[in-house]
Amino acid sequence: MVRSRLITNSRRRALQERGGYSLIELIAVMAIAGILAVVAVPALGALNERRTNVAARLLLQDLLDTRQYATSLGRTVWIEFDGMTEWRIRLEDPDQPGRASALPLVDAGTGREHVVILGSDPFQNVALTEVDFDLQPRIGFDWRGRPLTDDDVLLVETGGATFIGGVQVTVEPETGHARLLKP
Prior knowledge:
about 180 residues; alpha+beta; six-stranded antiparallel β-sheet
């Protein structure tokens, strides 16, 4: 005797009530997820590149501002890098000259120290790979706008900072001119 594998009406209703998905529905969902992944991955890469470019432009602007502060205030001003993740601007204390007693630049709008922190919002996935100003992790500008090393000696070679992805911000030794270089 041949047994039929027909699904009875009551069994069909039981399957429908369980709410399972058909193979066609699963394939359609997987296809849509694949398309979204193909679109999203390049967009995330471009987002990190944009964040790096914004951070590099901010560093360039901070270097230009630091040089301007030095010439307008008539005293030495530094940008100091703390590892590869942050930088801050420090002003020479007129009562105690020298970098050791330099004061943090306080933002007039917020009342907080001017510090840029990489690797966290808004600069997630952004970091420096190298900071070199005559082998020092800082650069200063004297009252004439000339770039100085750690020991208040004029910068000898072009110095700079390099971001992940190869974007560089450089400072010329004699003039203190800062510029942005993209790979």
